[in-house]
Amino acid sequence: MELINLKYQYKQYQAEIDQAIGAVLESGQYVMGQQVRDLEEKLSAYIGVEHCIGVSSGTDALLLALKALNIGPGDEVICVPFTWISPVECVKRLRAKPVLVDIDPETFLMDVDQLQKAITPKTKAIIPVSLYGQMPDFKKIMEMADKHNIAVIEDGAQSFGGEQNGKKSCALTTIGTTSFFPTKPLGCYGDGGAIFTNRSDLAEKMKAIRVHGATERYNHQYIGQNARIDTLQAAVLLAKFPHFEEELKKRFEIGCFFNEKLKDYFIIPKIIPGNTHTFAQYALRSSEREKIIGQLKEKGIPSAIYYPKCIHLQPAYADMRYGKGSFPNAERIVEEVFSIPMHPFLTKDDQNKIISVLKDSLLQKI
Q1: Which pLDDT tens digit goes with each residue over 236-254?
Q2: CA-to-CA distance for 210 and 18, rounded, in angstroms?
Q3: Which tens digit of pLDDT belongs to each residue from 107-142?
Q4: 210-230 as b/e: b if 16+ CB within 10 A
Q5: Predicted model pTM
Q6: Are the C-beta atoms of 71 and 44 separated by less than 8 Å?
Q7: Closest CA relative to residue 204, chosen from 222, 191, 177
Q8: Does any domain span residue 63?
Q9: Residues near 248 by Cβ (< 8 Å), separated by ≥ 6?
Q10: CA distance 275 to 137
């Protein structure tokens, strides 16, 4: 059994993917080829925003968004301590100050009720993370941000394709970003990402920043970087995209089945009313995590921990001066959270086996 079965997925769409890659090889246009423009048009229409900018990774998507907003020394950006490192990493790279707020223990997402207390006159942006595949309450976040004239950047690396009250992830904030890392719900075969916005001024600036700050060849208006998505990766995404909605539907069905069968045995992240969920990962909490992971391994079922250590307790970020105990919800969850196999190709037998082993690994219900 695979945690995420990319080999099986490739076999299902092999003819389309091979043809798409072959077309790029035939064209010889490996950098900013037609497939990049085609992908941007298709994804902007899918998300329902004016602009999509294909970039080299989800991390670079965040970095370009921050650069477009002129984030720099003296500015504060509000983030969460429980996520992948990228949001805080990008803020620090620009020598701005990450300000952290704890997460909601029911959803594992940014605790919106704590957000107001973190806002200061130096706050220039908020980066809420749509963790595991669902969005935080963006209505409340945007109301608060608009009141203080603060930009909001959604880290939608795990929620691409998800919805909140009928609007797609990456369409509810000033700028939305996502990742096409191979294990994401829509993944390429290397690194890739995208940025979404309805603001033409920001879109044009981010397009320039991704090609060394040039608005046209050899005319550099901004300090930029090389952050282009490869044409080959764009072609892979175009080949996989027609199957994306069906895969999301299967993910949701499997995730809801797991929720129903496991809700009396584990703490499961609550789905916020109005949200759909991509189940980029299927996460559970248990105080008996290590024993459970051992039992899963014994039965041939893989697992993973996303994420085993809070950002503020990482050695590289000690200068943020958040000590242990600063974010009790996040710090407790990292000790208990783990993920089980989740992908659209899990058979019903696989699902039932996972559930059975998980239940058997517990001595009693919680």
Answers
A1: 999 999 999 999 999 999 9
A2: 28
A3: 999 999 999 999 999 999 999 999 999 999 999 999
A4: bbbbbeeeeeeeeebbebbbb
A5: 0.96
A6: no
A7: 222
A8: yes
A9: 161, 162, 185, 278
A10: 9
| Residue that is last in its domain, among 242, 262, 283 | 242
What are the DSSP calls for 181-236, one per residue? -TTSSS--SS--EEEEES-HHHHHHHHHHTBTTEEETTEE-S---B-BPBHHHHHH
Q: Which of residues 220, 242, 264 is at a domain's end?
A: 242
Question: What separation in angstroms does the CA of 341 have from each of 192, 244, 304, 331?
Answer: 23, 19, 9, 24
Residue with the two structure tokens 């044409």: 231
Range of the domain at 323: 243-360
Return the number of other C-beta atoms located less than 10 Å from residue 116's C-beta.
12
| Inside any domain, residue 1 | no
49-52, long-range: CB < 8 A, 24+ apart: 49/170, 49/171, 49/176, 49/196, 49/197, 49/198, 50/197, 50/198, 50/200, 50/203, 51/195, 51/196, 51/197, 51/198, 51/199, 51/200, 51/203, 52/194, 52/195, 52/196
